[in-house]
Amino acid sequence: MNVVVQACADNKDEEEDAPLPGFRFHPTDEELVGFYLQRKVDNKPLKIDLIKQIDIYKFDPWDLPKASSREGEIESYFFCRRGRKYRNSIRPNRVTGSGFWKATGIDKPIYSNGGSACIGLKKTL
């Protein structure tokens, strides 16, 4: 069955990025890495800006939800370039205005749909 939705647009000044009622963004870890991050790396942007580009290191953890565009969501997603502590080092620079982001626990591997190839690691900060 095909459903056709038609709307009359009398007000052309309406915002195109208005919140979508009932929309929830709950991607899996595999979708975040295998689809959204891969599209970002390949420079293939989506028409809707679901994940904002934000330097999380300019925020303390309690300030991040304010930076998210979706109020009331439990989780927020951001793209952020990984800074280095030293020029020739692999150590990340996680310093914020009031302290630093600390890695806790062990990294969780993220596997592709087949489950055999590791496509990323999930780190809890």
From TrEMBL:
Molecular-function GO term, any one: DNA binding
Highest taxon of source: Eukaryota
InterPro entries per the UniProt record, alphabetical: NAC-dom, NAC_dom_sf
Residue span(s) of domain NAC: 19-125
Keyword Nucleus attached: yes
Keywords: DNA-binding, Nucleus, Transcription, Transcription regulation
Keyword match Methyltransferase: no
Protein name, per record: NAC domain-containing protein
Species of provenance: Gossypium laxum
